[in-house]
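hey team, just a heads up i'm posting the complex here instead of the shared drive bc the drive is being weird again. everything in one block, sequence lines first with there labels, then the predicted structure for the whole assembly after. its two chains so it's a bit long, scroll down
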Amino acid sequence: MHEIHVGTDLREKNRLIAEENRDLIRKNGVVSLNIMSAPGAGKTSLLVNTIPHLRDRYSIGVIEGDLQTSRDAERIAELGIAVYQIQTGGVCHLDASMVHSALHRLDLDIIDLLFIENVGNLVCPAEFDLGEDARVMLLSITEGDDKPKKYPLMFRESRLLVLNKVDLLQYVDFDIDKAKGEALDINPDIEILELSCKTGEGIDGWISWIEKFYGKCRNG
Amino acid sequence: MHEVSLMQNLLEVVTRVAAKEGCDRVRVIHVRIGEMSGINEDSLRFAFDVLSKGTVSESGALEYERVPLMTRCRGCNGEFHPNDLVFSCPVCGGMDCEIVSGREMEVDYILTDDDTGMEQGDACGCNSVE
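-- predicted structure starts here --
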């Protein structure tokens, strides 16, 4: 038989489009965060609780990824924020080309901060560079403290880990030190915040993290 | 969980390479998949069986090579396999480690019939000599 060397990375196509997205985002002076988590961890709730604290100082845009519905986008639109809904039609993650189309439909000129809410899934979104400035992973404590070791790539790829629903800590067997320790074993550089979208506890820490990150991106 | 979309990319790549080489049937597709790629072999094979129908890869075999996760310590340059996903160097204890392998998702090579890619008449000169 005849051997033909190929040597093609199957993520190459996504990587090239992600680079285009990154150029487009930077050229327009936008700072972007890709928010990833399992379904039900509270991604949309986090955004709904974040936007009111930032909207006076930043012009905000949101890209919502969802399998079928536009419920999340409707929750964001109620706040009067520019939102573009991507329905992936069953695809379990956002990829760079989906985000590329969304970027062309948003008025990037006037947006300072762009949140990209990924499809709820702890596996696949970690593999797809969207061209974002940073990846933020949300883990709700009701999911269990074993998640870092079970879904290592997600923790490896994220700059920030946000532990949500900490108001429920007394009701569930979630060892917060164990979860943090294992996340740090996998990614020693990961930053970790704790908060509750329900009570508002810890939201101020998250807001200052965003402001600091925004400053760092804009000032190089 | 994204094995289907990856397989679509894979088949596109193989079809393109095969067309360039003038080959209408691919015998073997050798892929290298990293231990930390999140790819499930069974799902990838299932996607191959379903999606390869009607393509040059249809009657081919998917060869799956699993690439172990290896990291390099930026402190002492030592390479190691992170046991239990703890990314700390077993030699110097450093935590600043980069992944050197284990994230692969690539088509390494394909095998085709011997006469692929040869100009007509080049395959064997016997008949014309006679």
